[in-house]
Design a protein that fits this description.
This protein is α/β, with parallel strands linked by helices. The protein has 16 helices and 13 strands. The strands form 3 sheets. A 7-stranded mixed beta sheet has the order 3-9-8-7-6-4-5, sandwiched between helices. Strands 1-2-11 form a 3-stranded mixed beta sheet. The longest helix is centred in the first third of the chain and has 24 residues. It starts with 17 loop residues before the first helix and ends in an 8-residue tail after the last helix. Belongs to the class-II pyridoxal-phosphate-dependent aminotransferase family. It catalyses: L-serine + hexadecanoyl-CoA + H(+) = 3-oxosphinganine + CO2 + CoA. It comes from Parnassius mnemosyne.
């Protein structure tokens, strides 16, 4: 195909210098070496596997060494408890360790921080307002849970209304909702695919997609991230084999670790040209992209009916929990009959359904669409200011996920500690969620952030970047 007629730009991925690569590897291998010596001389204070003859080990030797001597050293920067709604500001519960991060104890104090870590793209995760009021009313009427799967006694009027509203919002015939976003993929794909199906999967797809494909027992071939030329090569080779009942492209709208956006126009053109099918995960893009908040289809100008399966979650842009699959009425009837999540998993909580309904209705009003525009403006401003600092950022300029590369796990720890001390709550990400030497900070933009809050965050980030020497970009 002639790809020059399509927008195939998916984001910026600046490579770091050889100096950073060499010294990053050297530091890591030294740390692992001393960890190995430590393990030989001292018995680790961890649980050990016993009576496991005939069974595969729960952890391989590298994972054990990594968890004990690398991850443990920075463990205080992960899994931090909060005690407030994850709005523009969040209250972090402080803790300390007296045994080198093996265990933690609460100090009894709390720290109020500007929140750059939560998936609250449109600011609907609020302690008060129409969404919170709708959720409270649903809890009073239906309770907090329905104690049953949807296929039994777990359906209520809110579910039906939400499914109809979701289908209208996305511009497709029908939709079905589930109580958990992760399970929407992991339990939905086995009902759609099976032996004899080939999935062409992006190398950076979320683990829920990977697990769903494994449970479906479908054959999987991986193409390079957002590389449409490589995808076309794999697709044509698979068609030439003449042994697959169907070939499905599986990808995401916005990639949560890279901040990149799928070049959807080109993917849909390839799908139509070769007669493929398309499964699109819009967990991070629905609500956050497009002039009407419809997601990456809206952003790329693609008819949503050209996507065979639209999947998304209510966790990010809608401030709730759960997920959906949308598409043709025939597709949704099939999922109701064959999807494990509808038959076996717990139904979506009524307060969550009410929260999503209120947020979705708001996005159909001019005031609600102001949130979408503010998110876009905040994203552009934040990314531009980071580039001016000389740090390496990944992804597309329109993506509300903004990864800042720090490369080493020690830099993750040092950066998170210093930003927290300055009242900025951020998320550090490292192996195994990223490649071993591509650790990063992941900032999540929100329409709830004011420009003053972003300026406060950027000033703190600049101080830390200069202190730690994180200006790795060669485009300064």
């Amino acid at each position: 195909m002639d790809w020059s007629q399509y927008d195939t730009f998916h984001g910026d991925f600046e490579k770091c210098s050889l100096f950073i690569v060499v010294f990053g590897h050297l530091g890591f291998y030294l740390l692992m070496f001393f960890g190995f010596i430590n393990e030989l001389l001292f018995t680790p204070k961890v649980a050990t596997e016993r009576n496991r003859e005939g069974y595969a080990p729960l952890y391989n030797s590298f994972e054990q060494l990594f968890l004990r001597y690398v991850y443990r050293r920075v463990r205080h920067c992960f899994n931090r408890p909060i005690c407030s709604t994850p709005a523009a500001e969040v209250t972090v519960k402080e803790r300390y360790t007296d045994d080198y991060n093996w265990t933690f104890k609460f100090t009894g104090t709390e720290r109020r921080c500007i929140n750059l870590g939560s998936y609250n793209y449109l600011g609907f995760a609020e302690p008060a307002g129409p969404c919170a009021d709708a959720a409270a009313e649903a809890a009073r009427r239906y309770g907090l849970a329905l104690a049953s799967p949807r296929a039994e006694l777990g359906s209520c009027a809110l579910h039906k209304e939400l499914e109809e509203t979701t289908a209208r919002f996305l511009g497709v015939e029908a939709a079905i909702v589930f109580g958990m976003g992760f399970a929407t993929n992991s339990l939905g794909l086995p009902g759609l695919l099976g032996p004899g199906t080939l999935a062409l999967s992006d190398e950076n797809n979320h683990v829920s997609l990977i697990l769903g494909l494994r449970l479906a027992r479908a054959a999987v071939r991986v193409f390079r991230h957002n590389d449409l030329v490589h995808l076309e090569q794999l697709a044509r080779a698979a068609i030439a084999e003449r042994r697959w009942t169907k070939i499905v492209i599986v990808l995401e709208g916005v990639y949560s670790m890279e901040g990149s956006i799928v070049p959807l126009q080109g993917v849909v053109a390839l799908k139509k040209r070769l007669g493929l099918q398309l499964y699109l995960d819009e967990a991070h893009s629905v609500g956050a992209l497009g002039a009407h908040a419809r997601g990456v289809t809206d952003h790329c100008g693609v008819d949503p009916k050209d996507v065979d399966v639209l999947m998304g979650t209510f966790t990010k842009s809608f401030g709730a929990a759960g997920g959906y699959i949308a598409g043709s009425a025939k597709l949704i009837r099939w999922i109701r009959a064959h999807g494990h999540a509808h038959t076996y998993a717990h139904a979506m909580s009524p307060p969550m359904a009410a929260q999503v309904l209120a947020a979705m209705r708001a996005l159909c009003t001019p005031h609600g669409l102001l949130r979408v525009r503010k998110l876009r403006d905040n994203t552009h401003y934040f990314r531009r200011r980071l580039r001016e600092m000389g740090v390496v950022t990944y992804g597309h300029r329109d993506s509300p996920v903004v990864p800042m590369m720090v490369y080493a796990m020690s830099n993750v720890s040092a950066t998170v500690e210093r930003l927290t001390a300055r009242g900025i709550a951020v998320v550090g990400v490292g192996f195994p969620a990223t490649p071993l030497f591509k650790s990063r900070l992941r900032f999540c933009m929100s329409a709830a952030h004011s420009r003053e809050q972003l300026d406060t965050c950027l000033a703190a980030i600049q101080e830390v970047v200069e202190e730690l020497g994180l200006q790795y970009s060669r485009h300064r």
